[in-house]
Amino acid sequence: MDKPKKEPIALHNRQDYRLCLNCGFPNRQADTTCMYCSASLVEDNGFFSWLRQSYYILRWRYQLRQKRENLKQGHRGMTWGKGVGYFSLGIFLSFTGVYFFSHSITENSFSNGLIALLLLGYGVFTLRGLFRNKQ
Q1: pLDDT at 13
Q2: Could you tell me if residue 116 is inside a domain?
């Protein structure tokens, strides 16, 4: 049997859910308490309650739109503290690699040379990732 295609709620011109006025969580029409925060969903019939509910619905939709736009844009940049941390880590790894490399040449130690190249590579890679344009 073919499954019927589901149409979005906007095409039906009716809502099958009711938003909680406390947290904005969508609930079924038959529910009397919110499934997320356990707040009462019983509504007052009147202009002010309708106005308040409309405000909460619009605020909830705005917050969802903002989250969706932030996810589409991705991470804009690095914070100042994180940048300083990555810079310090890159400098530390690079200088440690240079120190071990010079020490391995004077000692003729192959294993220290490999460790030095590894540390130097990690340091340069960290600094390159920090200063490279991400767009």
Answers
A1: 52
A2: yes
The parent domain of residue 67 ranges over 9-73
- 3-state SS string over 59-117? HHHHHHHHHHHHHHHCCCCCCHHHHHHHHHHHHHHHHHHHHHHHHHHHHCCHHHHHHHH
CA 129 to chain centroid, in Å, comes to 20
Cα–Cα distance measured from residue 89 to residue 96, given in angstroms and rounded to the nearest whole number:
10
Q: Which two tokens stand for residue 7?
A: 């149409």
14 and 68 housed in the same domain: yes
Task: Give the C-alpha separation, 8 to 15, whole Å.
Answer: 10
**Does 91 share its domain with 69?**
no
pTM of the model: 0.44
Lowest mean pLDDT among 6-15, 29-38, 104-113, 120-129: 6-15
Distance CA 45, CA 29 (A): 15
Q: Give me the amino acid identity at 66.
A: Q
Residue 101 lies in a domain: yes
**Helix, strand, or coil (residue 28):** strand
- pLDDT tens digit sequence for 20-73: 877 878 888 888 888 888 888 776 677 887 888 788 888 888 888 888 877 776
